[in-house]
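TICKET: design request
STATUS: open
ATTACHED STRUCTURE:
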């Protein structure tokens, strides 16, 4: 495909408006227009970004080669299936669908029609995460913290499918081993779904991952720590920064009534190319459509992520 990819965005809510903004900046794609169930909002967003607000999904699909789905989760399967059936490439926000069975159906449909189906795990395009795979080769222990204030706009899913799913996806991609055991606890604080969750994943190769997420906090923290045999990695998603600690040694000295502890290590600041992860996600989607790149977040991978997420939800809600 030599000409620009004709792109449409469905859903102009919290994430949708960011997708529209990024789509307008792409060099190899043209934003044809947008659709939202709230036509008034769609019109406002369209005017702001100098594009067209379509009155139906069908009309938008007729004019485009690919669509970005940023509608509520319960609509993901229906819209994605409609688009794939009409031979349109799809970038759908996470989670891909409400059930694993629906996700498998979409992946199969995309393969049958030889279409790109990309799931919006935007953290995969974080500059620090792109570098992480080069230095985290044999994780022994992974610890993630993803906490933030409550966002009243997100009401259809809990913290596991809203926030923790990013870390599940990253961890599964790093460890590359089967999940042997899932332990999880969580509770509702400010919504009808779980708002805090603490999870331990044990892998067949011995790696252990501790994932903690909250959307009932007054602070915003997104970090990932990885312990390996000869190194320790600290990643800050917000600042897109990585620190690599090597050759750690410690000594304890007993003095006159004092215990002195000293630790020495070499700390490397890994160079990270910092860019807008959402923009990079869109650019990657377009390159895949044009045949210039292979999908980074493949459908089969996201089915596995969704399966683990639902095991976590079963653990949490089965204990109530």
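STATUS: resolved
RESOLUTION: sequence designed for all positions
ATTACHED SEQUENCE:
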């Amino acid at each position: 495909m030599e000409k620009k990819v004709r792109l449409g965005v469905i859903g102009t809510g919290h994430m949708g408006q960011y997708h529209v903004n990024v789509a307008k900046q792409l060099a190899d794609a043209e934003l044809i227009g947008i659709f939202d169930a709230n036509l008034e909002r769609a019109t406002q967003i369209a005017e702001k970004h100098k594009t067209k607000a379509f009155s139906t999904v069908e009309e938008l699909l007729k004019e485009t080669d690919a669509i970005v789905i940023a509608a509520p989760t319960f609509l993901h399967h229906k819209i994605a299936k409609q688009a794939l059936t009409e031979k349109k490439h799809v970038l759908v926000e996470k989670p891909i669908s409400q059930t694993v069975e629906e996700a498998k159906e979409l992946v199969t449909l995309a393969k049958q029609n030889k279409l790109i189906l990309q799931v919006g795990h935007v953290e995969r395009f974080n500059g620090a995460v792109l570098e992480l795979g080069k230095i985290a080769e044999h994780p022994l222990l992974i610890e993630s913290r993803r906490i933030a204030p409550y966002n009243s706009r997100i009401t259809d899913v809990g913290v596991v499918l809203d926030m923790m799913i990013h870390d599940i996806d990253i961890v599964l991609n790093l460890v590359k081993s089967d999940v042997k055991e899932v332990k999880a606890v969580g509770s509702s604080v400010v919504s009808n779904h779980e708002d805090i969750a603490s999870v331990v994943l044990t892998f067949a190769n011995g790696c252990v991952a501790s994932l903690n997420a909250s959307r009932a906090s007054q602070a915003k923290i997104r970090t990932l720590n990885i312990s390996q045999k000869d190194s320790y990695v600290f990643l800050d998603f917000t600042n897109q920064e990585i620190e690599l600690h090597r050759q750690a040694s410690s000594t304890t000295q007993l003095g006159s009534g004092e215990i002195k502890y000293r630790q020495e290590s070499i700390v490397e600041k890994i160079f990270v190319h910092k860019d807008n992860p959402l923009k990079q996600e869109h650019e990657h989607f377009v390159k895949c459509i044009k045949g210039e790149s292979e999908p980074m977040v493949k459908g089969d991978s996201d089915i596995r992520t969704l399966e683990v997420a639902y095991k976590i939800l079963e653990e949490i809600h089965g204990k109530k």
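CLOSING REMARK: The longest strand covers residues 241-254. Residues 124-274+307-318 form a domain with the Dihydrodipicolinate Reductase; domain 2 fold (CATH 3.30.360.10).
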